[in-house]
Design goal:
- A hairpin with a 7-residue loop joins strand 2 and strand 3.
- This protein has a five-stranded antiparallel β-sheet, with helices on both faces. Strands 6-8-9 form a three-stranded antiparallel β-sheet, covered by helices on one side.
- It is α+β, with helices and mostly antiparallel strands and 461 residues long.
- The longest helix is centred in the C-terminal third of the chain and has 28 residues.
- It has three domains: 116 residues, no CATH class; 106 residues, Phosphorylase Kinase, domain 1; 218 residues, Aminoglycoside 3'-phosphotransferase, Chain: A, domain 2 (Alpha-Beta Complex).
- The protein is built from 14 helices and ten strands.
- It is 49% helix and 11% strand.
Amino acid sequence: MTQARYLWSAASALRTRVRPFVTDNAARDALDNSIRVLTTMANAFEPGPDLPDAVPAAIHMLAGPPENMAAHRNTGHAIATLAAQVGGDIAPQKRLEAARWEMALLDEALARIDGVERAAPLEEGKGGNSIDPERLQAYLRRQPGCEDVEVTAFRLVVGGRSRQTALFSVSGGGNLPAKMVIQRGIPGQAAGAAFLDEARQYGLLAQLHAAGMRVPRPVLVETDAQWLDAPFLFVEQVAGAPAQPDYWLPADNEAVVLDLARQMALLHAQPVDRVGQGLVEAREGHDPAAWREEVEQLATAWNESTHWPSINISGAIAWLRDNADCIDDRRAIVHNDMVFHNILAEDDRITAILDWEQCAIGHPGEDLGYCYPVVIAVTDWGRFMDAYRAAGGADIPQRQIDFFALRAGLRLMSLVLAGGRDSFEGGLTDDILVASAGAHFSQRLLHRIAVVFNSILERAP
């Protein structure tokens, strides 16, 4: 389609000819997300593979791009028809064939998108900062023994969407570490109920560090926003580099992946009644009825928010309904985002697990299922679970892992669609980051759900 060609061309030019000259971090982030929106919309306009004459030749473009990147103009109706069938009473082989067909389309679409979004830039730019290092230094000089402290080597780094992060060094700081990290909330942005505030993160990190987990040692916490316009937390810098900066890619080191299993086991072994004080309960009920109710909530959220059906999500919801009774009543401290973009590593071992703001009390399978798609891309899941059990982790059956892996994808999808995309399409915000979450993140996530669901189907007797 002509529209698709225009969009692909614009996205490619922005990536390779404009981005190398953007030196401000905020501007670069906005540009990257604009490119993601363009490539997603371009793919939605792109014709798909030829289909038999019996299949309608066009799909109706709704309010925005379909979450299902495979829903091209001449394949969308076929996907919708099969999605309705695969969620009901259908022969296992037919379900597998339909899921594989959609999976092949997803693979093709991602390859096309990646060709633009990951094209090598002509030149790497330099970043700016938005946390004022002079105000930071003034705050530190109020600490005992730090009257003459100097802040040096200050550098803002890419952080999450709910906070800003910077690395810096100090001299003349008394008992302060020579190298630290500051994590600050976004000024003017209210903390969500599902996220830990800085004070609770400080207490949790202190207990986990004392228990021998590889987490940054907390140094100071400040809840008064007057100093830097939002609450903030200092931790000691840890050696190492991100195991995988790209959220969607697996780590390339099996030793680090197996080390994650050991660290996860240590976290899940922490006493909930002591270390878990101040953490929220992930849910009120822990019996099969409560899990079935949650599945229905996820199904409702998908059906009400989706722009186009998906064979794999329809099948995943049906599978979750059929298997909710497999979950037992276990409770542990869970990280909820314990994958490789939040992990520092060096010399084949993890040096720090980061980003504890979503930590809660839940089922240990939630962390295991969440990391399952990126783990199986690197190593055999059995090896991962052997390392987990050897480090003190419980014996979690594969059926439960499958349940939590699908649940994690659907839960994250509902948050992205309802919390991000709908607010953008409803006119509540024009933030390009929110637009990208609905247009780009949801498509990647659908692909991940499809990987898990196909894995389950292929292992079925």
